[in-house]
Amino acid sequence: MESTVILENVVASTALAEDFNLEKMMESGLEGAEYNKKKFPGLVYRIENPKAAFLIFTSGKVVCTGAKSIENAHAAIITLANTLKDIGFDKIYPEPEVHVQNIVASADLKTTLNLNTIAIAFGLENVEYEPEVFPGLIYRVEAPKVVVLVFSSGKLVITGGKTPEDCDEGLRIVRAEFDNLGLLY
Predict the structure, then answer these.
(1) Could you tell me the CATH superfamily of domain 109-180?
(2) I need a surface site. Which of 20, 131, 143, 167 has the fewest CB within 10 A?
(3) Where are the domains of the chain?
(4) Phi, psi angles (nearest 5°) of residue 84
């Protein structure tokens, strides 16, 4: 039975301007924004469509998190840029370059797994398993450079990818390894 990768979170970054005055941004009516310089150096701002959260820094750099696709991350950043223009920040770059930093995805192998058996079969090369510290097995894939968290329920969390294809390939590699070891029923 094929399991599919579901994108859970896309983290992307960009520069929207040369710099930002975050106090001025708060005063300009950025609805729902949070800024407490003593707790965190950036301003936190959330939007609903597409659903995303931003960390906005005085450097003009922005981190977008919570998007469910790369397209949504791009759309959210454009929405933020337009919102900032609307409230008087007119030095926004016209075409910000968006860089995907990390994709977190999930998948389900739809079978239970014996993580002790997997840890022993894989040896210690690319695998960490310390059940008293963390209930999942940590499998580091070399190429693409992703980390797959494997749980005894058969559920997986794939992180570190820069593209959805990286996550798909991480799943394919893990599934092939488990299949070779006769662990998938």
Answers:
(1) TATA-Binding Protein (3.30.310.10)
(2) 143
(3) 12-100, 109-180
(4) -65, -40
Percent of the chain's residues with pLDDT above 70:
98
Rounded distance between C-alpha atoms, residue 11 and residue 67, angstroms: 7
Residues 6+ apart with CB under 8 A from 1: 110
User: Could you tell me whether strands 51-56 and 137-141 are parallel, antiparallel, or unpaired per DSSP bridges?
Assistant: unpaired
Query: What is the rounded CA–CA span in Å between residue 25 and residue 46?
Result: 14
Sequence-ordered list of residues with C-beta below 8 angstroms from that of 138, at least 6 positions apart, any chain? 127, 128, 129, 147, 148, 149, 150
pLDDT tens digits, one per residue of 36-64: 999 999 999 999 999 999 999 999 999 99
Taking alpha carbons only, the member of 135, 121, 6, 8 closest to residue 67 is: 8
Q: Which candidate, 132, 115, 123, 109, places its Cα nearest to that of 179?
A: 109
Q: Which has more pLDDT, 182 or 112?
A: 112
The predicted model scores a pTM of 0.89
CATH 3.40.630.30 fits 12-100, yes or no: no
